Amino acid sequence: MSVLENILNKLNTTEKTENISILHAVESGSRAWGFASPDSDYDVRFIYVRPENYYLRLDKTRDVIECELNDVYDINGWDISKTLRLLHNSNPTVFEWIHSPIVYSTHNIIKQLTPEIDSFFSCKSGIYHYISTALSNSRYLRPEQVRYKKYFYVIRPVMACRWILENKTPPPVLFSELVSAVADDSIKPVISELIRIKTDIPETATGKHIPELDFYIEKNITDIKNYVGSMSDDRKNNWSEINEMFLKILNIK
């Protein structure tokens, strides 16, 4: 059985055992970003909906399903109610799942609602998220020998911030699109070489620092941190649209 067949089989089994309908199932993480190592696992994420009566209960219900976690597969999903609440807060993960370049399955309702979903994207919230991610991951670049994988976990969110500043839209999930659109010409060859190295070596491989990237990262993090505080709050505080989307999804056949 191929990896794709195995993933689809696991998702199908989850639908039956959990009594859910999976609306959208995608790849997340390094495979979706386009710089997976030979031994990278499969980060499968999905959005699901339960039967309508389930949402009429008064007792608190769980809104996350973890299917599998091992060296090969990391599979989990969010209930549509959790997803839409996070969308209301412009959580960037929602947009990354919706726009993943690797889609295992998707319902027409998700395709129909994508423009409405994207309308809830907040530039300020997005930049705060990605710059915080870059800062958090930059601690992995402090040792003399660094895992090259960690460079991407800093560079990608930095470039996502630059995309948002320039385009005012959710950034592309595919790393190569970000690099092509927003990276300085001087740094593109350095990143291309890093991608080549990363895709040829194991996840845990380490090496020497890359001074050009260290300088690029430090400068951009400083510039973005100094700017984001001055941005106006552009969140779309509209529960009526979120509720309408929820009802549309509950009414699908």
Task: Explain what this protein looks like in three dimensions.
The chain is α+β, with helices and mostly antiparallel strands. Helix content is 52%, strand content 15%. It has eleven helices and seven strands. The strands form two sheets. Strands 3-4-2-1-5 form a five-stranded mixed β-sheet, with helices on both faces.
Residue windows where pLDDT falls under 50 for at least 5 positions:
none
Largest sheet: 5 strands, mixed
| Nearest-integer average pLDDT | 93
What strand line-up does the widest sheet have? 3-4-2-1-5
Report the order of strands and helices. Answer: HEHEEEHHEHHEHHHEHH
What's the number of extended β-strand segments? 7
* CA radius of gyration: 19 Å
Number of helices: 11
Strand content: 15-25%
Which structural category do the helix and sheet elements fall into?
A: alpha+beta
What is the 3D shape?
Answer: globular
Helix content: 40-55%
Separation of termini? Answer: 31 Å
Topology:
Elements: H1 3-18, E1 21-28, H2 30-33, E2 42-49, E3 64-69, E4 73-79, H3 80-88, H4 92-98, E5 103-106, H5 108-118, H6 123-137, E6 145-147, H7 148-167, H8 175-182, H9 188-198, E7 206-208, H10 211-228, H11 239-250
Helix pairs in contact: 3-11, 6-7, 6-10, 7-8, 7-10
